[in-house]
Amino acid sequence: LGDVYKRQYLAGEIVKSNYDHITLEKNNELIDSIFLDKNKKFSYTFNQEKFSPGLYTFRHTPESQVFYIEEGDSLLLRVNMDEFDESLMYTNDKSHENNFLMEMYLLNEKDNDLILSYYKMSPKDFAKKTDSIKNFKLERLASLKDKYDFSDTFTELAHKTIDYEYYDLRERYAYLINRYFSDFRSEIPNDFFDYRKNVNFNDASIQSYYTYQRFLDNYLKNKAIETCIDNETEDPSHCFKANTIENIKQRLYLSDSLFEIENIRNSFLSKIAKKQINFSVSDGQIDSTISLLNKFNLPKDQLKAVSYTHLRAHETGR
Q1: Which pLDDT score is estimated for 277?
Q2: Cα separation of 77 and 314, whole Å?
Q3: What is the pTM of this model?
Q4: Which of 168, 246, 152, 149 is nearest to 205 (CA)?
Q5: Sequence-separated (6 or more) residues with CB below 8 Å from residue 253
Q6: Cβ neighbours of residue 252 under 8 Å, at least 6 residues apart?
Q7: DSSP 36-96
Q8: Three-state DSSP class for residue 42
Q9: What's the pLDDT score for residue 186?
Q10: What residue ranges of the chain have pLDDT lower than 70?
Q11: Are 108 and 165 in contact (CB under 8 A)?
């Protein structure tokens, strides 16, 4: 009975559900499909031998969200599909940790909406704004950690999610400045990108977390622009367009060199290659992309998916 008691357990209710099941994933890999009963409820016991603590993703098409679970936890959730993120609530073990992650998610989404006004600030003012946002979240985490005795493991992970949201805000600001207000580039403080020294491009613990993935994507865009500027001896104006073939190809090379975790590397290679094919203006450019992916040893199933994009491009007249 002791072994059964220690097993990890997830259960919940999906109000106004769209389908008859949810899927469970970890690190972008499918763990299992879990069917709902007639009352739109589900329960699931993790495989004890294959279980590892940390972040998981549950999907109920078209929505998805992450949750955190440790050994021996029984976690319950309830969500209404009409207001998925706003209504998602957790109870039982790790409820406070997961409700904190949801609170941060909703704050991050609010920041996403405001970024379109933030980028009109001077670089110095924007730096102060992002510092303020980060400090507020760190204070909130510290308060809840003391109140609910968060584990060191979760606290470390929560710190990472706050850090990478902070990093991402700055990367997106830099991209908007590069793209639309390049005159501001000279006003960016020397220490604006100091956080890049602390970036772990291969952090397994948060590899599927949305803020980490979004930061990596925006970092690649900016780094490709910076590489283009460094190599341009005459007019660098073309470097600020993120969807040029040259920029996208540079992001492919960066992905291959930066990412050692296969899931991250292959995901970005596939996504960026599909984008390059969509923006190609000739079959020669498309063939060049497919050839490059072959050199990167992309798994066959993902190469096949990219090739399908190639065929679709032909069908639409590319």
Answers
A1: 84
A2: 45
A3: 0.91
A4: 152
A5: none
A6: 269, 272, 273, 276, 289, 292, 293, 296
A7: --TTSEEEEE--TTT---EEEEEEETTEEEEEEE-TT-EEEEEEEGGGHHHH-EEEETTHH
A8: strand
A9: 84
A10: 1-6, 281, 308-318
A11: yes
Phi and psi angles of residue 258, each rounded to the nearest 5 degrees, phi first? -85, -40
Find residue 22's DSSP bridge partners.
Answer: 34
pLDDT for residue 317: 53
CB-side exposure of 294: number of CA atoms within 13 Å?
7
**Is 203:251 a contact under the CB 8 Å cutoff?**
no
Instruction: Read off the DSSP letter of residue 233.
Output: S
**74-128 tens-digit pLDDT:** 999 999 999 999 999 999 999 999 999 999 999 998 887 777 777 778 889 999 9
Round the average pLDDT of the chain to a whole number and report it.
Answer: 89
Peptide bond into 236 cis (omega under 30): no
Q: What are the CA-CA distances from residue 154 to residues 108, 111, 112, 160 (Å)?
A: 19, 23, 25, 10
**Total residue length of the chain:** 318
What is the spatial distance between Cα 217 and Cα 159, in angstroms, rounded to a whole number?
20
DSSP code of residue 195? G
Q: Residue 76's beta-bridge partner residues?
A: 11, 91
Burial class (CB within 10 angstroms; exposed 0-12, middle 13-18, buried 19+) of 222? buried
